[in-house]
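Thread title: Can someone regenerate the structure for this chain?

I was given the following input by a collaborator and told the matching structure tokens would be attached. They weren't. Posting the sequence so someone can regenerate them.
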Amino acid sequence: MINRRKKIALLTAIGLSLSACGTTDNDAPSQGYETYISDGQPFKHTHFEDISGHPIDLSKIKGNKLIILFATWCSDSKRTFSELNASALINDSSLTILAIGREESPESLAEFAKNYRVKFPLIADEKRQIYSQYANKGVPRLILLDENNRVVKTLIGETENIIEQVTWN
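Best answer:
Regenerated them for you:
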């Protein structure tokens, strides 16, 4: 009886952790999400280095930008990347897409890029220094920026078809 209870408790814990990519510690899914940047505000980071060591300067990139804060282990993040790959956004030459891996190493991001056919720059945020400037929890987070790097919209991508909500209107 005790072994059965332990198995049920373990399976329940695994299920909850996989179904709610945004939860941390003992938080309940979808509760307590905070976004630390609002529409119209300038995006705080403009200089990055991707996992291949190439510098990225958002201030020199023309057009709209889509910033994705994600985690490779998160089912919602994986679904968002699959949706993005199936969308017209992926081939839009006027759009720059960057993805920042929360608590991810360059190696884990390189493996993810291979598995999910990622063709845009990935940035490792191993110590959550970038992510913590924009949110307390929840991945994927999508931040839409205009040509001047001002926030147009923020989205929490824990629902299906989130890519359909990526518009600059």
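The longest helix spans residues 2-19.
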